[in-house]
Amino acid sequence: MKIGLQLIDFAWPGASARIGDTLGAIGKNAEEAGIDSLWVMDHFFQSPKLGAVEDPMLEAYTALAFVAGQTSRIGLGVMVTGVTYRHPGVLIKTVTTLDVLSGGRSWFGIGAGWYEREHVGLGVPFPPLKERFEQVEETLQIAQMMWSGEVTQYRGEHYRLSETINSPQAISRPHPPVLVGGAGEQKTLRLVAKYGDACNFFASLGEEALVRKLDVLRGYCREEGRAYEGIAKTVIGDPALMRDGEGNLVAGRVVEHAAHLAELGFDYFHLSVPNVSEPGALDLFGDEIVPAIHKL
Questions:
Q1: Residue 155, C-beta contacts closer than 8 angstroms, at least 6 positions apart
Q2: What does pTM read for this prediction?
Q3: Which residue pairs from 128-133 have beta carbons closer than 8 angstroms and sit at least 24 positions apart in sequence?
Q4: Could you say which architecture CATH assigns to the domain 7-237+277-287?
Q5: Is 154 helix (H, G, I), strand (E, B) or coil?
Q6: SS3 state of residue 194
Q7: pLDDT tens across 65-123, in order?
């Protein structure tokens, strides 16, 4: 099993003047601890589920490019890009650039988006959910075309490209792995089976729901002629099962939680660390958590 570190806020000591130094240190420390990948959210305002809307929030791809320049091994991904935030041609160019500059370490996470307030606040169109799902599928089709190396036209319902030029091409082969975010059984998991290299669920859904969703994905893979085993099953750990009464991570609980999810069929485990900006916050990972999870 592999392990990913998810950064969910940037409200760190020192305000704006220290965010860059802190982010760089976290990336280097995560890599030294043996963590396989580092992920940021794709938001412009902080999620109301995680803090005050005015809390610091970095643009995702700029932040990952910054980390890429200070690391050499750790994977880099957005969990996940909202399809509405960037035109798909520009988005694929952005992901490709990150992959090239990082030496082939980029993931491509994509989803339908949900945070209406930041759309309205910054003047970004926020179409109905049905239309956003249509945009996700068209974006995945455009990604396939741009990463194929073929220069052609794309004519969809929502997007039209006259030249799918993408130079330089991604270093990752055949392309950066595509993670389709979300757990919807009618649309999202069908898109995973048709276009994705990975899915992502929340462990907080509970064992019964997780098993059902994996079964649904398995069925869609059969319909699409895809090998179910070829899709990475990733999961964001349930904080309530990994922390003590004061909110601190407990190594044994993290490993136990990851082991249970591995038994259910997951092979990539993501989590956030409450005190990630503090010196030594990731020492526990290098000493205990990462070695144990890599053995699962």
A1: none
A2: 0.96
A3: 131/158, 132/83, 132/84, 133/187, 133/188, 133/191
A4: Alpha-Beta Barrel (3.20)
A5: strand
A6: helix
A7: 999 999 999 999 999 999 999 999 999 999 999 999 999 999 999 999 999 999 999 99
